[in-house]
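[Q] Does anyone have a clean structure-token version of this?
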Amino acid sequence: ALHLNRNILRKVPLFEKVSDGFLRELVLQLEPMVFVPGQALMRRGETGRELFFINKGTVEVLGPDDVEAIAVLSDGDFVGEMALLDSRPRANTVRALDYCNVYALDRTAFERALAEFPEIAEEVQVVADRRRAESSPDD
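[A] Here you go.
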């Protein structure tokens, strides 16, 4: 599982420099999910609790009007990183354009993994603080 998912996990800034042991723990926590065309992975305004990794398929990130697509994500992309760090409303609605296989990592599982690797928790906190400073208040 680690071999298949290492590259997608490493794309997330929080996980760029963590150990393979920590990644192995995260891989064990990934929950496979399937979304059908038009189904929302997340909705603007709801409190985020998970990070989604797109394994197969395409999703669109909708702008403030929830109509116009401002980004399209596909195989190997991720969305919702800040939900692992903070309980704040989602900034955008994201919906499937076709049948999508995704993996979800929820905050509780992430926090369990950090508890097993306290040295990594400090590193993640540094990256998280930097990411918070870079993002707008409603990301």
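[Q] Thanks! Anything notable?
[A] Strands lie at 31-35, 40-42, 50-56, 58-62, 69-74, 78-79, 94-96, 100-106.
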